[in-house]
Amino acid sequence: GNAPPGVDPEAASWFQAVDADRSGYISVKELKQALVNSNWSTFNDETCLLMINMFDKTRSGHIDVYGFSALLRFIHQWKNLFQQYDRDQSGSISFNELQQAFSQMGYNLSPQFSQLLLARYAQRSSSPSIQLDRFIQICMQLQSTTDAFREKDTGLVGNVRLSYEDFLTMVVTRMM
To answer: Mean pLDDT, the chain, as a whole number?
Structure first.
């Protein structure tokens, strides 16, 4: 069929292929089956859910062809950034590449924090590295929590005083 106005024809035809149940919408499960990392592993559930929620304007838990088209553009931008930071073109981001990526994105984060992220999100191996899906997830969560922090850090001093409940509210509204 023809693409709706404002939707890339390639995105529209991919939408048709991904919409397995022909509902006119794409669920987290359908999206997960459509997206693969460079090592052919499917995208993880958390990243798919984050992205669906980002483009799900009706809060229904799925996206239409317009949301899907926007999501593909979003993934394409992240993939370009990922490839830029994947200096050795291995298809994944190593510790040093992650440190460099954070620095170039304007985040002043310690090597210990990057190590923590690798321990949490990388596949277990002698040289842990991060696939595209986890890179997108980390960057989205980092951006979201940084925005929440900046709302409280009005003087831009780099630290805030929070009650426990304020902290939990920040986490719940930004991450869940």
So the answer is: 91
